[in-house]
Amino acid sequence: ELKEEFTRILTANNPHAPQNIVRYSFKEQAYKPISYVDQMAIHFTLNGNMIPKDSDEGRRQSIRLITAAGRFYYPGLILLSFLSSEEAPVETSAVTSEEPEIKDEESTGDAQATGEEEAEESGTAEVAEAAEAEEPPSVRLKEQKLANQFNFTERASRTLNNPMRERACQSEPTPCENFSDTANQWNISNAYKEELQKMEKSKEKEKTKAQVARREEEKKGRKFTPLESRSDDTNKILKTTKIMERMVNQNLFDDIAQDFKYFEDASDEYRDQKGTLLPLWKFQCDQTKSLAVTAISWNPRYKDLFAVGYGSYNFMKQGKGMLLLYTLKNFSFPAYVFSSESGIMCLDFHNDHPYLMAVGFYDGNVAIYNLKKATSQPSYKSSAKMGKHTEPVWQVKWQKDDLDNNLNFFSVSSDGRIVSWTLIKNELVHTDVIKLSVEGTTMQGPEELQLQTLGCGISFDFHKKIDYLFLVGTEEGKIYKCSKSYSSQFLDVFEAHHMAVDSVRWNPYHSKVFISCSSDWTVKIWDHTIKTPMFIYDLSSAVGDVAWSPYSSTVFAAVTTDGKAHVFDLSINKYEALCTQLVVAKKRNKLTHIQFNPVYPIVVIGDERGHITSLKLSPNLRRMPK
């Protein structure tokens, strides 16, 4: 056993050095292991007492040694300086140059060197005494500059200045020509004639092109639809023509403009707080005769501009849709016209970007129109891939931008989904906020699957101050109080109406109050903390729409399918309307929507025949609260 050898290999690596150290790499954005590890292990350290020569303490000690031995040097220096004045200037400089070398030697020299120095000293002293005896005492010795005792060298440097350079270039002169001519009436008339001939030739070319295209289309068996070609001159005067059209209309119907601006119904004093609606302009367009007014929205910046959506509430007669923008300055023709393949059911202007409109269609799509772009097509539109609704979109509402400053709006549809649409990189991205599940309607499907029926959302509105809170009215007559934060459950459910909730609106001044209207002939006012309504009004006909006024928390208006408009003021009369007025004839026409103007004392009302009627509120209907 003692003869058995155990082999050990000694390496330079430290066995205790860690091998798994990582550091964060900012270049690769990740933690990376360090390949190099310090393998040095220190086993013994000892602090020495050697002092560097150039340090402060080293200089002090060298000076101390030099001063201690200084008495051996100075007499020799006096002698040599005395001799240098007469005989040996070269020897003096040699001695002085050798002095620093003597001073820098170590103090621990040999005894022999010191003995030689003492002998030299005695010899030089004798020579000095003899010289002093020979020379007169009045002669002064010239002081010799001592060499630097502190090993100090003075250095100076100077930076080189960059030389100044000049650069210049000369371009070739542009070619010029002198032209002179005399113009008279004949030359001017000839120039005009030539220009007219060119225009006629270009028109003839366009005609021949159109005829050739028509023949080709006839050969192929297709119908040819000629497009009206507008010349450059027409485009230039289009804006001027619009302004002139406004002026002509205001001159022709000056009495309506005067009533809108200045007329106040004096008979309100004798009506016992009742009021009237004065009809003003009627907006209509030939292209929308067969379509119903499905949405009205005022522009938040231009108070005279409002948008109207056209479609059909009859699901058996669905066709195209129209989006028109009217202004109070010109009622004869819309300022903007957009057409769509499907009927438009709702629209909303963006508060911060008044040129952007969110639109919902009957086929379940949503789109964004940009009024700044000269195109009839929407700038952004959803599709089946983007998660569009499977049923008509009944209402859209813009919301505040998200945390990344992306535009977003919400939509509600009959398919039971509340969807948030966000505009990210020129594309609409959808997010399902909540699904309107109806309690007690779980059905047993094939293979024991549980199928849950979804409620049909028709209207919704977001709280003016509490950002996450919103209400949803359904086709079953229920109103759901929901939150953006909870997608699986409702905050509260109101058994509001017996038929579809056509509209639900938060009060703009009172944060707890909202109003709802339904096809069951009733309008109800609620406190969202109480399950039962505070006020119930029976209007004897299906209510199409209801709206709060922008100037008072107690004034609201509603329209019914029998063609009447009702205006209430709760601060004056809590039981009946202050004004009930027939707006359109009952025969085959129904009122669908109503909107207050945010600034002027007027309302606009839409009907099923595509007409928009504007009416002015009498003084009793627009009393400001104290």
UniProtKB/TrEMBL annotation:
WD repeat positions: 494-527
Gene Ontology terms: biological process: cilium movement; determination of left/right symmetry; outer dynein arm assembly
Keyword Oxidoreductase: no
Residues forming coiled coils: none
UniProt biased composition (Basic and acidic residues): 201-220
GO molecular-function terms, A-Z: dynein heavy chain binding; dynein light chain binding
Biased composition (Acidic residues): 98-108, 115-135
Main location: cytoplasm
GO cellular component terms given for this protein: microtubule; outer dynein arm
Similarity comment: family membership: Belongs to the dynein intermediate chain family.
Protein name: Dynein axonemal intermediate chain 1
Gene name tied to this protein: Dnai1
